[in-house]
Amino acid sequence: MALNTMHAEAVAGVVDRVVARYRRDPSNMVQILREIQESCDWISPEAIDRLQSTLGVPRTKIEGVAGFYSFFYTEPRGRYRVLFSDNITDRMLGNRALMERLCNNLWVERGKVSEDGLVSVGKTACTGMCDQGPALLINNTAMAALTAERIDEIAELIRNKLPLSEWPAAFFKVEDNIRRADILLNADFKPGEALLAGRARAPDEGLMASNMRSWREGLPSGMGGPIAVLDEIKRAGLRGRGGAGFTTGMKWEACRNAQLKAGYQRIIVCNADEGEPGTFKDRVLLSTCADLVFEGMTVAAYAVGATKGFVYLRGEYRYLLDHLNAVLARRRREKLLGENILGIPGADFDIDIHVGAGAYICGEESALIESLEGKRGTPRNRPPFPVTNGYLDQPTIVNNVETFAAAAMIALKGGDWYAGIGTRHSTGTKILSVSGDCERPGIYEYPFGVSIRQVLADCGARDTQAVQVSGPSGICLAEAEFDRIIGFEDIPTSGAFTVFDKTRDMFEVARNYVHFFQHESCGFCTPCRVGTSLLKNLMNKLHYGAGSPYDFSEIEKLNQLLQSMSHCGLGHTACNPVLDTIAKFRPAYEKRMNQQDFTPAFDLDRALSAARQMTGRDDAAAHLANAHGGEA
Amino acid sequence: MSLTFTLDGKTIPFEDGQTIIQAAGKAGVFIPHLCYHPEFKPHGSCKLCTVKVNGRHTASCTMRAMPGMVVESDTEEINAERRALTQMLFVEGNHFCPSCEKSGNCQLQATAYHLGMMSPHYDHFFPNRPVDASHPEVLLDFNRCILCSLCVRASRDVDGKNVFALSGRGIKTHLIVNARSGQLGDTDFTLADKAAQVCPVGVILRKRQGFAVPIGERKYDKAPIAETVTEGK
């Protein structure tokens, strides 16, 4: 009997329970689907039937959402669903061989479900464990530091059908690997202090009352505490840590000044959808400094008069959910969340955690909001911007995890203190996620202005050929550029810092990143949907040895088109890794440019590989002479 | 005082709240488009209507007109970009104009002619997209779907039925219908639905109507798309 068959009544029971917990609110669709899958292993037609009737939404909407997210399955994928992280760093650490080993161990073909319906093995984008790869997700739970022995143990447990909850806890151990801590990771902070300090900044004279009023009334101007907090954020010169670097004070002020319609509230969203390959700092901030992050969100709520908060946690970090919910529960007990926070009447703010489901695009703030509303995560048309028309059309602030942590410290210690750290244009510190070819991968927090060379020295990198800063959408630096600095005036970054030594093939690095963008394109706009696929095909064509100067100019043209016509940043940056590596590591491409004239990408011998597999033949007579001379 | 902006040097009047493409249409100026339809909320996904506003690319169906804007549309550069997008749409699906019932009435084909597209340029993807002939009156040929979502919007916003939706992601994005079987015949879709009238290409086809109007006498055979598609027509 297939293991995926649950009785329709049992499925209906699960659906009813989950839907009731989410108050029959379709804007929780992503969370509802996630929990149904956690109980039923997949989202079956029976589950959708029941959802349709209990939520009262059309089937098309449910299937549209379920079909968008990589981690939702509308077909059975087994009781154990293994996804190997396939970032370039995982590849450098040998993830392919481990995946092969697990597949062989379990008699399952990559990407397929085993014949007994027990297990499937596939790959997924970077899971945020680059400092301790190779990594995988099993039923959306993270496992890191994989070895051949561990793979064999995993196979054994799967074959014995042992429930995941009974697996050794050590298998799921994730290290923090904090190598350099500064004002955030070493914060001198006790929960509640930043809020108290922010409130205490209100001028004394007769404004205590306004502290209460301002929160309750959605902040008319001229009110004590909140104004003072916002002033400190501005004085600190804080800029967003997600990569774009928008001035935080301006964003908060715009949200605060946005007209509030009757029945609406202001919303604070913490963007923990850390999907950029090579980034894992938010994972560590949330596991070690969750209080600081939540307090920063509460400070923001205080400053702008928001009453509702969300953390959008990437699906790969599902394993952090219980920990984060426990911290939230403790903060509620300590009167740091909920109603009348710190005893201030009307000071109401609470935080819910939404877990994503495998969609990089949801790190884009408007796509994130769509996802929070239970929809497909496609970026919105802008304007209007989230600060005026965000979550359910309400004024919304979306900030990075690290931005909120910094905001809490600014509320506590003041803007001048913060502005004294870093450089003139980039105040404060930046947390870097260092991985790749170095002795000490992990988390490094530096004051802004640190040079690439310094980071390389600190992490024990040798014979470094290149550093990819900010992941695929960022910049690839060659040796001549290692004296450049991290900061908005030179190299702005969300924090990924991936090191490649001289043994690495930079073409393969770029090809891995191009595959990533193709997989993560949301499909909304033509240029990105089709263009990223065309680009992937071109890179594969070079890989197979059929590349010619013609293909180079095609890549160049595609880049221009994606930059000018795409709907959002994903399309705008999808060609960056290729252009950077062509400019700086051209020999890696020249080596593959075997053809002087245009050569078709189609290779008859390669196309016959399916036939060879089916017939079990691989002898010389089963091959054509390979016209390109490339690897098949 | 009346509000105006300039489009390729021509002064275009507009009313507050109008988008660039709406104002241009009213003034009789054609901007190529596929997912835009004057009767529906703009979607902004096909990007064919992209123009340059004060030097920056933006979709004219979602960008509101502002006084004094300088808009470029019918330039060699922008038309080349639009042509490339059209080619992308051609290779993404399976479009065989000579055998398509919509030929001559197809906005994609007419737009390709308008932009002077002479070949698909890119390698074809040849996706596998089975047709759905389950409905007694209507055939769905997904091979030609360009994901404009006009049928989605028409069914949801006008018919109140939600017969269509987009599912999947990225290059796997596809149209689905509102039935557990996935078949149009199991939905409440009818020929009278607005959604049956809006497909700009040849996905939603009326059965038993094939080639009732001979090729050569069809909409865009008589006049190129730039002369037929303006606001409200």
Structure description:
The complex is a heterodimer of chains A (632) and B (233). With 632 residues, chain A is α/β, with parallel strands linked by helices. Helix content of chain A is 42%, strand content 12%. In chain A, the strands form three sheets. A six-stranded mixed beta sheet of chain A has the order 5-11-10-14-12-13. In chain A, strands 2-1-3-4 form a four-stranded mixed beta sheet, with helices on one face. Chain A has a four-stranded parallel beta sheet with strand order 8-7-6-9, with helices on both faces. The longest helix of chain A has 18 residues. In chain B, the strands form three sheets. A five-stranded mixed beta sheet of chain B has the order 2-1-5-3-4, covered by helices on one side. Chain B has a two-stranded antiparallel sheet with strand order 6-9. With 233 residues, chain B is α+β, with helices and mostly antiparallel strands. Chain B has two domains: 72 residues, Ubiquitin-like (UB roll) (Roll); 128 residues, Alpha-Beta Plaits, CATH 3.30.70. The mean pLDDT of chain B is 94. Chain B is globular, with a radius of gyration of 18 Å. The two termini of chain B are 28 Å apart.
